[in-house]
Specification:
Layout lengths: L4 H8 L6 H7 L16 E2 L7 H8 L4 E10 L5 E3 L4 E6 L2 H11 L3 E2 L2 H8 L4 E4 L5 E7 L2 E11 L6 E11 L4 E6 L6
Parallel strand pairs: 1-5, 2-10
Antiparallel strand pairs: 2-3, 2-7, 4-6, 4-8, 8-9
């Protein structure tokens, strides 16, 4: 019996991320609380937020990012970040520390209290149903992009956070592909 990819996708379950898990698992509204499947302990933040260092990232610019977020499932079909939130943060030592702490399986202590200081430096958008996303009016610089792809099915399950770095230049559109190699 032939099963189309769409039928298989429906049989495997919804690919749209559960909002509660997404918000708990990614950057908390206006803050950075990655929660990237962190099951270790709490780690004190070592790098302080420097408003002057982040001021250039908060300003409007003439660069943009076009991207796509997906996972290739074991059966070869794609699970996309459809409807999911994509976060963009400056690739500064402050935000890189967040990623490294969560990559190590830990979490930042008192992360909700830190949100006030860095909330203006975080941008977010939403993936289309095809798993595409875009950020516009960006200043030149290096950025960290974070999203989550979830799929549930009888044989395969995954709830993965994808992280990549991209550099923008004035008047140019950078491309960002977040997929299996970007899992943390």
């Amino acid at each position: 019996m032939f099963v189309s990819p769409a039928q298989a996708d429906r049989a495997a379950g919804s690919f749209e991320p559960d909002r509660a898990r997404l918000l708990a698992g990614l950057l908390v509204a206006g803050g950075l609380s990655l929660g990237l499947a962190a099951c270790g302990g709490e780690v004190a933040k070592k790098v302080a937020f420097d408003g002057a260092e982040h001021a250039a990232y908060i300003a409007k610019g003439k660069a943009s990012i076009d991207g796509e977020g997906f996972l290739r499932r074991p059966n070869g079909w794609l699970a996309r970040c459809s409807g999911g939130v994509v976060y963009l943060v400056p690739a500064t030592p402050y935000f890189r520390e967040w990623v490294e702490v969560y990559r190590a399986g830990n979490r930042i202590a008192n992360s909700s209290q830190l949100n006030e200081s860095h909330s203006k430096a975080i941008r977010k958008t939403q993936c289309t149903m095809q798993g595409r996303f875009q950020f516009a009016d960006l200043p030149a610089g290096k950025w960290i992009i974070v999203t989550r792809v979830t799929y549930d099915g009888n044989e395969w399950n995954s709830d993965s956070t994808l992280v990549a770095e991209v550099e923008t230049r004035p008047g140019e559109t950078a491309t960002a592909i977040l997929s299996n190699p970007n899992r943390i």
